[in-house]
């Protein structure tokens, strides 16, 4: 059970899981990754409308010697320089699994990973005690130390038999997993809806990312009425066992996403009432809790490279 010191009146059980689990890419797949991510990095601001509302970090993290960690390979050697300039950064999940951050990959789960090289080079790590769907604060899961006890089996020819490539090569496949039997069970939820209309009021076409962002912002604004700061709720939604869903993706022009927050994690009743919002827990202001610069109004994300 977690009782966060920075967010009074909240407690919830953990759902431990690895944020990273996957196999190694082949050289051909690695080249595909680098080519497509370099294209979005170089042309994304001009071609991708989604960047206009979500461009708050680099569009992609391309291979670079800066901040590169290559294990036992000695830095400064020719091998280190060569590998650092072609090795894919491990921030996003890809065809091999990787940093998928799926909170339901907990005890008892089964993961079916494609294999691209001899020996698979399976790896895992980035242990989380708890995380909300989407990990919306980017590094918002509760990290922990730990170990995994795993059993591995090989399904020979399994990629060809079970995985249909969704792309131009046989390498464009994705993992499958089974959810384990161990996870927190909640029966009462408060569900926040979002549609693909951004903070400026601009309509986007069936954009699930914009819709989910709106659902999260709606939840932050609502729950902050119960005595919490928006920063506290932002952190909470990234680490508590909330459930994100794409509820509608065919009724143009709006995609519809929902964020379900279990009400029993709060020590107070946060459901709407006919009377005024009750006074909630007193805010705990500590210097190690990050603060936003806005005064309470939800800001419109600015991107100087975008066109309105």
From TrEMBL:
<dbReference type="GO" id="GO:0016811">
    <property type="term" value="F:hydrolase activity, acting on carbon-nitrogen (but not peptide) bonds, in linear amides"/>
</dbReference>
<dbReference type="InterPro" id="IPR004304">
    <property type="entry name" value="FmdA_AmdA"/>
</dbReference>
<dbReference type="Pfam" id="PF03069">
    <property type="entry name" value="FmdA_AmdA"/>
</dbReference>
<protein>
    <recommendedName>
        <fullName>Formamidase</fullName>
    </recommendedName>
</protein>
């Amino acid at each position: 059970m977690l009782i966060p010191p920075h967010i009074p009146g909240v407690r919830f059980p953990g759902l431990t899981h690895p944020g990273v689990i996957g196999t190694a890419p082949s050289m051909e797949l690695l080249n595909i990754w680098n080519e497509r991510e370099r294209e979005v990095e170089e042309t994304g601001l001009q071609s991708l409308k989604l960047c206009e509302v979500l461009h708050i970090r680099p569009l992609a993290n391309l291979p670079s010697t800066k901040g590169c960690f290559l294990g036992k390979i000695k830095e400064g050697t020719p091998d280190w320089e060569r590998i650092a300039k072609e090795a894919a950064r491990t921030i996003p999940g890809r065809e091999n699994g990787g940093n998928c951050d799926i909170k339901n990959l907990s005890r008892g789960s089964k993961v079916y990973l494609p294999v691209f090289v001899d020996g698979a080079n399976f790896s895992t790590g980035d242990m989380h005690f708890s995380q909300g769907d989407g990990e919306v604060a980017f590094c918002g899961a509760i990290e922990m130390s730990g170990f995994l006890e795993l059993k591995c089996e090989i399904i020979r020819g399994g990629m060809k038999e079970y995985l249909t490539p969704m792309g131009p090569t046989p390498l464009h496949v994705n993992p499958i997993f089974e959810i384990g039997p161990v996870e927190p069970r909640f029966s009462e939820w408060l569900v926040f809806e979002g549609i693909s209309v951004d903070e400026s009021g601009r309509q986007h076409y069936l954009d699930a990312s914009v819709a989910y962002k709106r659902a999260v912002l709606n939840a932050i604004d609502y729950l902050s009425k119960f005595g919490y700061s928006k920063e506290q709720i932002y952190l909470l939604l990234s680490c508590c066992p909330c459930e994100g869903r794409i509820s509608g993706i065919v009724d143009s022009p709006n995609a519809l996403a929902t964020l379900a927050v279990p009400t029993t994690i709060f020590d107070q009743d946060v459901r709407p009432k006919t009377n005024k919002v009750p006074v909630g827990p007193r805010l705990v202001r500590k210097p190690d809790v990050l603060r936003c610069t806005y005064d309470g109004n939800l800001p419109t994300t600015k991107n100087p490279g975008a066109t309105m």
